[in-house]
Write a structure and sequence with these properties.
By secondary structure, the chain is an alpha+beta fold. The protein folds into 2 domains: about 130 residues, Jelly Rolls (Sandwich); about 45 residues. The protein contains 8 helices and 8 strands; from the N terminus they run ααββββββαββααααα. A hairpin with a 5-residue loop joins strand 4 and strand 5. The protein is globular and about 55 Å long. The chain starts with a helix and ends with a helix. The model has no long low-confidence stretch (mean pLDDT about 90).
Amino acid sequence: MKELLEIFREYASFKPQEMELIRKSIKYRKLAANDHLLNEGSYSRELVFLSSGIIRVALYLESGEDITRAFIPEYHFAVNFKSFFNHEPSKVNFIAVTDCELLVFDERTILKLSNEILGWHDFLLKISSKALSNKMHVLNNMLIQDAETRYKEFLKIYPGLANRVPLSTLASYIGINQASLSRIRKKIS
């Protein structure tokens, strides 16, 4: 909770009574490893803050293979912005890599806070903008970098995750097979 409150302070200047309203609006939930926070085809109806754990964003191909597109580590928000704001089905899955503890704002709560707190909408816009900017930076780098550079970039973007994420999932994210990832890891260790 402390980390979430720090993010509120970083992106907005809510009054003490507004912070109390926000705090009272938070719902708590746990996910076990491999549970889905959001399924492809479902609608994103929550803004979730990970107080612990890791979620991966994955696509399932017709061949049965899944491709990891992103990781969401603790102290970050997890939401499919396109699905949430455009009210359209998600094209990706949000899957717990580890057991997770979540702080949740459902759609109704978000609307209520928007109506009761003047700066709430601006706060949502700021975190959305930052998340999309980070996503574009990562995706652009993934398109132009070789596998070793992509792995080094992963280590920089997600410090401490390499030993908490299954090798197959990490290889999927980087876009290589597990054997190639093992060689890269040995080379740069």
